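To assess whether ligand presence alters the predicted conformation, the chain was also submitted together with S-adenosylmethionine. Input:
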Amino acid sequence: MHIPVLLVESTEFLLGNGGRLYVDCTLGLGGHTKRILEKNSRAYVIGIDRDESAIELAKENLKEFEGRFSIYKANFKDLDIVLREEGVEKVDGFLFDLGVSMYQLKSERGFSFQIDAPLDMRMDREQKLTAYKVVNEYPERELARILWEYGEEKLSRKIARAIVQRRKEKPIETTKELAQLVASVFPPRLRHGRIHPATRTFQAIRIEVNKELENLESALEKTVKHLNPKGRLVVISFHSLEDRIVKNFFRRHAEKFLLLTKKPVTPSEEEIRMNPAARSAKLRAGERR
Ligand SMILES: C[S@@+](CC[C@H](N)C(=O)[O-])C[C@H]1O[C@@H](n2cnc3c(N)ncnc32)[C@H](O)[C@@H]1O
C-alpha cells in the first residue's frame, strides 16, 4: 500500500550514531520504523502521524515489535508535546518522510484527481479546513496566491478565476469536477501531456489544507532543542518548496548541525523504476553538534 522511499539510505543516516531513541515524525504505515527496529535491536521508536487510519495500519505492520515503540496521533509540529507526554527530553534522531502516502493517495479522501471523491484532502480528519472549503470559499486572490506559491502554477490567476466563476453557479464538489475545470483552462495542446494539468493545483490545495510548509518549519525548529549531541535529523522531501525549507534550516543552524549531505541524496534509478512515486525524493541529513 506504500513503498517506503530511500529506506536504506535514510535509516543508515539516522542510525549511524548508534543511538537508541528515535522519533519517526511521519509514521505512515510504519515502513521506516520497521527498518529502524530491525536494524538496531536496542532501538525504541516514538511514532507520530496525524492520520488515524494510517496509524491503525502501522500498528498491524509493527505487531512483532510490540513493546519497542509508542504511537501518537498528533501533528509533528507538536513534537515537543508528544515528547513531554512520553516523558522524554532528548532523543537520538528525528526522521521526516514528508507528503502523503500511497495509501492516502489511493483512498477516497480526495487527494488525487485519479479517484473521483469529495474534495477533502485532510490528513487529519478531525481538522475543520477541507479542500472543499478552500475551493468554494477562499477569495479569488487567495486561491491564485496558493496555486502560484504552493503549486508553482503559471496559470494560477486563470485557474482561480475559473473556479470562482464556476462556484457562482454551483459548488465544486468532487475531485473530477475540479480536475476537469482546471484542465479546461489550459490550451488544448497542453491538456494531454505526461503530467495532468491539474497536478500542480491539487498539490497546492493539499499543501494549504494541511498547512504542510508551516508545520515543517516549526517542527524542524523544535528538533534542535530535543536532540542529544550527535543526534541525527533526517528529512525526505518531495517538492522544491519543502526541500528549500530543509536546506535553509540547516544553513541557518550551521553552528548547531554538522551537515551529513553536502548535496541531497536522491533515489537510485533502480528504486525509481520499482517505485516511480520516489522520483522527486530528496534526502538531507544533519548531526547535532
Ligand atoms: C510519506 S508518508 C510516510 C510513510 C512512512 N515513512 C512509511 O514508510 O510507511 C507521510 C505520512 O506523514 C503524515 N504526515 C504528514 N504531515 C504530518 C504532520 N504535520 N504531522 C503528522 N503526520 C504527518 C501523513 O499522514 C503520512 O501518513
